Every structure is written in C-alpha cells, then in structure tokens.
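Title: Prediction job returns without error message
Component: structure pipeline
Severity: low
Priority: P3
Assignee: unassigned

Description:
Job completed but the reporter wants confirmation the result is attached to the right record. Sequence as submitted:
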Amino acid sequence: MTDLNQQLRKYFIMGSQNCNRDPVEILKEAIVGGITAFQYREKGTGSLSGKAKLELGRKLRDICHKNDVLFFINDDVDLVETLDADGIHVGQDDMPIEQIRERFPDKIIGLSISNMEEVKQSPMKLVDYVGAGPIFTTSTKEDAISSVGLEWIKTLKDKFPLLPVVGIGGINPENARSVIQAGADGVSVISAITKAKNIKGAVKQL
C-alpha cells in the first residue's frame, strides 16, 4: 500500500456551514481521533466568502500541517495557491483536470466519479485518487445525486487497481467497514464527524 493510500484512509471534509460550533475545535478533535486527510469545503447555504473564508482556511491549514494531515481544497483553484494546500478535489462540473494539472503539476488531485460514463470522459491518468460515490444516500450535499452502492467501488478497483479510491456519501461509523471491505482505500465523511457527540470516538470507529 502506498503512502497516499494510507493518507487517504480517514478523510474528513468540512466547512463552517457543516458545523454547529467552532470548526477549528472540531478539526483538532478529529485529528486527535485519527483522521489522515482533511478537505476544506466552504460551499453552500451559510458558507463563508472573501476574507472570512480565507482566514478560516488558514487556521485549518496550519492545524493540518502541524499534525502531518493532508490539507485539500474543494474545487477553488485560487485558494490552493493562497493557502499552499497539499492538493485539490474537484467534481465533474469544475475546472477540467487537464487545466488543473497544468497549473499544479506537483499537487495531489482528486476527482469525483459516480459512473462509467464519467470515467470515459475523464483523463484518469492525470488524477492521483478518485472519490467514488455517493455510496449511500446523503443529505449533506445540496446537489447530491442518487446513491451508487458498494459495487461501484469494486468496479473502479477492478478497472484501476493501483489508483486510490475513497468512498464518499452517507458513510458513518456503522457502515464504513463495508466500504473498506468492498475495496476502498479510504472513507470520506462530513456529518459523521461534525455531528458526532464524541468526535474522537467516531473517527476511531471509521
């Protein structure tokens, strides 16, 4: 297993809009619990913008870098440079992968993939990992598509055995094991951590 596979094992995604208390404190608790990667996703209803978005991003980045946790940005290419992120994660409707790779030759690039049609349309050789899903039904993303199930992970791993695959969508401590057993290298979660009463305990169970 490569370093990246291991670093993507417990992948936490969060923006202030997902939190009912200080996101800085939530991230600190999640790191103590054992997350291995973090994605700053300040997007959707109630999210920050401008200077406030940048300031929170800096705080979260500093915490990640201090604790050797990978720090990703969700689709905001300008923020990647400003915050010196380790990488960027994009969806099918964001900036084309070719342009992102040209701009960031040394950054880790992740791409969301939910069906074979998207695989055919994507330059898979240019991405470092894929986010497969939504595996289960999720209420966190406002524009989420219908769930694709565990079989999608098996399909991707069969087709790209060396490419790290992270399951996303509706994953929680109760079903995370099934995602890993299906072949995923890691699981990514939002509310399973932000809404947990015991964050450290929730992360350990993932």
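Comment from assignee: result matches the submitted record. The chain has one domain: 3-205.
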